[in-house]
Amino acid sequence: MLLELLRRTGIAANFFGMDKSAAEICAFVNQYAPDMVFISCTTTECMPAAVELVRALMAQSPHLTIIGGGLSALAQRNELLEVGATEICGSRGEVRRAVRLYALRRSVTRSSQVSTVRPLPDTRTANS
Q1: pLDDT tens digit string along 20-58?
Q2: By C-alpha distance, which of 51, 53, 1 is closest to 26?
Q3: Residue 92: which of 14, 7, 2 has the closest Cα?
Q4: pLDDT tens sequence across 96-115
């Protein structure tokens, strides 16, 4: 569902299932430099892999925004937050809010980084 929500707003989104290792996902993130990574962890058995992935991603890309979700992620949110996840969401609405806040912060940061360009002095004379 998250992929569809993102794609409907024009965001390029990819899905990696349990068949990809943390190293393969990190390589993809390194190559494409996404703004956000979403991790879903619904079963307790997946938590160690999710924690390993978040830890590896943060070691490689410390400023990456990582949003987690799923029943196990919610139940053990502190573990994911401690290794670097940005936020753990419990519903689609919370994910939407997190994405909107990210986009808002990013636009504010980018607009404050844009330097103002002073116009060149007008060298025309009144008779030109």
Answers
A1: 999 999 999 999 999 899 999 999 999 999 999 999 999
A2: 53
A3: 2
A4: 899 889 888 887 876 666 55
Q: How many CA atoms lie within 13 A of 28 on its CB side?
A: 14
Cross-strand bridge partners of residue 65: 36
Look up the pTM and report it.
Answer: 0.78
